[in-house]
Amino acid sequence: MRAVPKGMGSTLFLAFSAAAIPVLLTVGLLLEWQARRALEVELARRLESLAAAVSSSIPPETWGLVFSLGPGEEGSRTAAHLRSRLERISLEIGAERIAVWTRDGRLILDTSLDLRIGSQAPRAALVERELEAVGRGERASTPLFRTESGRLLKIGLAPIEFLGGESSRAGVLLVEAPSQSLGAITNMRRTLWAAGAVGWVFVLAVAWWLSRRLTRRTKRLADAARRIGRGDLESTVPVLGEDELGILAEALDRMRKAVWIRERQLRAMLGGVAHEIRNPLGGLILSSEMLARDGRLPDDLARKAQRILEEGLRLERVVSDFLHYAKPERPHREQVQVEAVLMESARSAREGLQWQGECRIDTCSAVVSCDPDHLRQITLNLLRNAMQAVGTQGNVWASTRHMAKGLEIRIEDSGPGVSREDRERIFEAFYSGKAEGAGLGLAIVRRLCDLNGVDIEIADSKLGGASFRLGFHDDLEESTS
C-alpha cells in the first residue's frame, strides 16, 4: 500500500484555483459590461431628451429665421441671439457643445466652433446613420467615441421643426456631452478588480485549507491501510468524521476487526494442531534415532530407521513453520549488522540441509533498523529455499548494495527459477511448487517483511535462477566500525 502522493494537496489546490480564477474574472467582466451598458443607455436617453427639449424650447418662427440664413450671415443679429441662447443652455445642462445642422450635414450654428454657414459640419460622417433616423422624425444618439485628445463623448440628436410644410423636419439639433459616468465605471472596475483579488485570495485560502485537510485525512487512512497490509490488525483505524472519508474509515476498521478475528481463530487452530503433532513427533524422532544408531539391527532395518528419522526431522521443520506462521512476534527494532546475519543464516541453512554447493556472501558494511530475529528468519528461509532449488552442484549468491534511501539485499541462485505465473502466488500460504514442505517458508518471509516495513520482490537472476530482493528504507545507517 503506497502512501498518499505528496502532490495530491498541490493538485487539489491548483484545481480549486483554476476553477475560481475564470469564475471571478467572468463575473467581474460581466458586471462591468452590464454596468457600462446600463449607463450608456441612460446617457443616450438623457442626451436625446435634452436635444428634443432644446429644439422645442425655441419657437418655430425663430428656427425659420435661423434656417433662412446664408453664408456670410454668421454675425447677424439672429445668429448672435441664437448662439447666445444655446451657449447659456449648454452651460446649464453641462453639454460640451450644441450644434444646429441641416439634414444633409451642413452647419448652421455651433456653440464651440466659428465656421461658415453652409459648410460641411465636422463629424458629419460619424453620425450619418443617426441623421437618417432624425430625418424620419426620430430621436437618435451615437455610440461612445473617443476624440483625438482621448476624451469619451456621445452625441444626442433630435429633429428641429419649423414652419414650411415639407421643410418642417429639415433641421437637426445636436447635443454633445462627455461621458462623465465613465468615471464611475472606471472606479467600479477598480472596485471589481480589488474585490476579485480579495475573493481570489479567499478562495485560495479555502482551497489550501481544504486540500491540506483532505490530504491529512487521506494520509491517515492510507497509513492505517498500510499497517493492515503489513499484518498490524490490532491498531484501530482513526475516526475521520461522518463524511465519505469517515464512512470509508469506519468500513476499513470493521474489515480490520473481522480479519483479526478470523486470523486469530486460524492461527489458534494452526498452533494447536502443531503442538498436538509435535509431542508424539518428538518421541518418534527419538526412537528412530536410537534404532538407527543400534549396531545390532540388520542393514535393511537400519536403513528404514534412518528413513523414518529423516522424515520425522522433515515433519519437525514443517511443524516449526506452522508455529512461526501461527504466532509471529511483533517486531522489536534494533540496529542489526547485515553482514553478520547473512553469514549466520548461510551457515545454518548449509548445516541444516547438509548442502555442499557454493554460497558466496558479498556484503557492504551497513546496519538496518529491524527485528534481528525476523531478519535471521527471512534470510534463513530465502537461503534455504535457494539451496534446495539449486541442488548439490548449484551456486547461491547473497549480496548487499546501498541505495539512495536505504539498503538492498539480494539472494540469487542458479536453479530453475520461478515462472511468471508462480510469482503471483509464491508468497501465498500453503502454496508450494515442491513435492515436500507445507508451502509456508515464503509466506513467513512475506509476513515478516510486512511487519518490519521491508519490500520484497522476485525477479530473474544473473545466475540463471531466481533473485529475491529485500529493500530497507529510511532507517539505514552506515557502520562506523
* Class of secondary structure makeup: alpha+beta
Sheet-strand content, in percent, reads 15-25%
Helix content: 40-55%
Alpha-carbon Rg, integer: 49 Å
Order of SSEs, N→C? Answer: HHHEEHEEEEHHHEHEEHEEHHEEE
The assembly state of the depicted protein chains is: single chain
**Average pLDDT over all residues:** 80
Could you characterize the architecture of this molecule?
With 481 residues, the protein is α+β, with helices and mostly antiparallel strands. The chain has 3 domains: 10-184, Beta-Lactamase, CATH 3.30.450; 244-326, Orthogonal Bundle (Helix Hairpins); 334-478, 2-Layer Sandwich (Heat Shock Protein 90), CATH 3.30.565.10. The protein is built from 11 helices and 14 strands. The chain has helices spanning 8-57, 60-67, 77-93, 128-135, 181-229, 244-293, 299-326, 338-353, 372-390, 420-423, 441-452; strands at 97-102, 107-110, 140-141, 145-146, 152-160, 171-178, 334-337, 358-362, 366-370, 395-403, 406-413, 455-460, 466-473, 477-478. The strands form 3 sheets. Strands 1, 2, 3, 4, 5 and 6 form a 6-stranded antiparallel beta sheet that branches. A hairpin with a 5-residue loop joins strand 12 and strand 13 (466-473). It is rod-shaped. Mean pLDDT is 80; it is low at 1-7 and 475-481.
